[in-house]
Amino acid sequence: MGTIRQFIEVALLASLGSCLTVAGALWKLYDVSTVGVLLLVVGTILFFVRGPRYFDETIMRVSTLPFLKNMSTILDSLDAKGKSLILPSNSGFEQMLLVGAGKGGILESALLADSTDGGSIAVLNAEGGEVLRLAPLGNDLAVRIASQIAEEKHQNLQQMFQRVEDILTDMGALSTLDVLQDGAMVKVTVEGLLSHFSCQELCSKYPRVCSQLLCPMCSALACLVSQFFRCPVAVEGASTVNGRTELSVRILEEAS
C-alpha cells in the first residue's frame, strides 16, 4: 500500500500548491503564493513523471495480471490446447480452471472480455478469435468441500479421496468414489452422483470452446488432485454413462 500512499501524497502536494497559489494571489500574500507555485511545480512534475509508475506498480502488485501471465506461460509451454488445465491455488487467489481452444493466448484480454451466460461456466473470448474458459471455482458445494479437504493435509491420494467419499456419502450425494494412480495419470470413478449433469452436456452446449469441458463436480475433483500434488494438472477426459462418472487427470510435474 506504500505505493498508493506515495501516489496520493504527490497528488495532494500538487493540490496544496494550487490552493496556496490562489490564496496568496487573492489576499496579496506573495510569499504564500510563491511557496504555492513551488509546491505546484514540484507536485505536477512528480505526478506526471512518477505517477504512471506508481499506478502501474500498484496495479501489477494487487491485480490478477501476474498470475495470469504465469498461467499463460504454462499453457504455451505445454501446448495444452483443447484440454482443461487446473493450477494449484495461488496466494490471494481462488482455485481457477482454465480451458483453451487454442494455445493460451493473451489471458489478460480474455479476462476483460464479455462472457456468455453459462452459470458458473464463464466462456470468454480472447484476442485473435481464440476462446477460453476462466471459471472461478468457489461458489458450489463440491468446491467448498474440496477446499476443506485440501486444507486437511492428507498423507496420500487414497486417504484424501476416502475422506471426500465419506463426506459425500453421508450427505447422500453419491454411492461410491474410487481413485487409482498410474504414474502421472490419476483416474477418479464416481457412482451415484445426485443432482449431477454430465460433462458431455457442456461439451455439446459449447462445442467450439474446448474438447473437454467440466461440470462443477468434476472440476472440484480435479482441483483436489492439483492441490494434493501442488502442481498443474490436465484433464484428459470426463464422461458419465449410466450414473458412472470417470475422470482422467494427468499430473504435469514438469510445469510446477
Average residue pLDDT = 63
By oligomeric state, this entry counts as single chain
Would you report the number of β strands? 9
Share in β-strands: 15-25%
* Name of the CATH first level of the largest domain: Alpha Beta
CATH topology of the largest domain: Muramoyl-pentapeptide Carboxypeptidase, domain 2
**Major beta sheet, strand line-up:** 3-4-5-2-1-8-9-7-6
Q: Largest sheet, described in full?
A: 9 strands, antiparallel
Describe this structure in words.
The chain has a nine-stranded antiparallel β-sheet. The protein is of the alpha+beta class and 256 residues long. The longest helix is centred in the N-terminal third of the chain and has 33 residues, at 30-62. It has eight helices and nine strands. Helix 5 (141-150) packs antiparallel against helix 6 (157-170). 34% of the residues are buried. The chain is rod-shaped, with a radius of gyration of 26 Å. The protein has two domains: 2-62; 65-102 and 134-255, Muramoyl-pentapeptide Carboxypeptidase, domain 2 (2-Layer Sandwich). The chain is 48% helix and 20% strand.
Outline:
The chain has 256 residues and is an alpha+beta fold.
Q: Notable features of this structure?
A:
256 residues, alpha+beta, Muramoyl-pentapeptide Carboxypeptidase, domain 2, 2 domains, 48% helix
